[in-house]
Write a structure and sequence with these properties.
It is built from twelve helices and 17 strands. Strands 1, 10, 11, 12, 13, 14, 15, 16 and 17 form a nine-stranded mixed sheet that branches. The protein has an eight-stranded parallel β-barrel with strand order 2-3-4-5-6-7-8-9, surrounded by five helices. By secondary structure, the protein is of the alpha/beta class. Bound molecules: pyridoxal-5'-phosphate. Pyridoxal-5'-phosphate binds next to helix 10.
Amino acid sequence: MAEKKPPFSKEQLMRIIEQHPTPFHIYHEEAIRANARKLLAAFGWAPAFKEYFAVKATPNPHILKILHEEGCGADCSSLPELILAEKSGIRGEDIIFTSNDTPANEFIKAKELGAVINLDDISHIDFLEKNAGIPELICFRYNPGPLREGGNAIIGSPEESKYGLTRKQLLDAYRIMRDKGAQRFGLHTMVISNELDPNYFIETANMMFDLVVEIFRTLKIRVEFVNFGGGIGIPYRPEQQAVDLDYLSRGLKESYDRKIVANGLHPLKLAMESGRMITGPYGYLVATVLHKKEIYKNYVGLDACMANLMRPGIYGAYHHITVMGKEDWPLGYIYDVTGSLCENNDKFAVNRKLPMVEIGDVMVIHDTGAHGYAMGFNYNGKLRSAELLLKADGSVEMIRRAETIEDYFATLNF
Ligand SMILES: *Cc1c(COP(=O)(O)O)cnc(C)c1O
């Protein structure tokens, strides 16, 4: 069971709202720090374990700095994300550049920063060489495809995904890169998203460690690190269970000992690019009920919309909702909770059991700390909200202001 309890009382929240009108996202600093520490502690056994926080999940330098202080690096996939990492004080190999369909200027910037460059395709070797030159350290993203030998049946269908190199390309790519002068090599994959079963990640590790052994046997190249990407899920629904990181860690260690240590390839560094599991549960979208309407169904309309949180609209994703001050009321009513877009998918919840809702109630939408604000857009002329940071002493810092109409017009030429 995942407890869905906001980290503030209604009274505290009303005081915050006096200073910062709804809607806004608010992130719980202490919980994010504790969570990052927990992940790093779980993998304390792994040589030089590194978590590169996926910047796309929560692209705010305050969050990146907090995570950097806890020992995390940054996983970037665009020029602005690289600059965000740089401006947050994250440098060199604390940045991994995991991109795809990459423009030349992004490779140039990544090389300039000394970031670990993770190539998504064999053709990117020549593209990188021509535009930025061959770095000393290079990583390749593996796509296991239809999962024959060395794969398994449970990691989804990577052959439908646009990412990474095939097995044969991968072996060729390491050889080509070595011939071009690269001296250090990493291996990356990411084959799943928002997965709550730790065994998926253990199976992926088995596959990756086998591949490290194969690369050593066939090419005499010793891979320096394996990066498992992101994809660890979070319990969006109260009845779901968070991934047991200690179980996951034990499974990975067992595989590491059996495949890496036994083949004389220890130490092999391990890395992840988690986004969602780091910040997701510790962000909340706070909104006020503007309207109620009763037609064929009962609707509650908020002052937030899909511009603030896309996941329910585009994936039908569940986000838990707390009506502040009514936590103990019976869930006696069924509502669709909507935003104001002229787009019928603009709903935070469909057929949700809630306490009786009144105009002016404050709703807290849970688990918006990752892929929440970040996915926002300006459709229908809607403006993106502020982002707030709730600190350990209970104070609140605005870490991004809300967009204004001037921002909306800033790019228009007329
Ligand atoms: C999106 C992404 C991540 C982060 O995924 P989460 O689901 O947030 O953990 C990490 N690496 C790559 C390459 C990604 O595309």
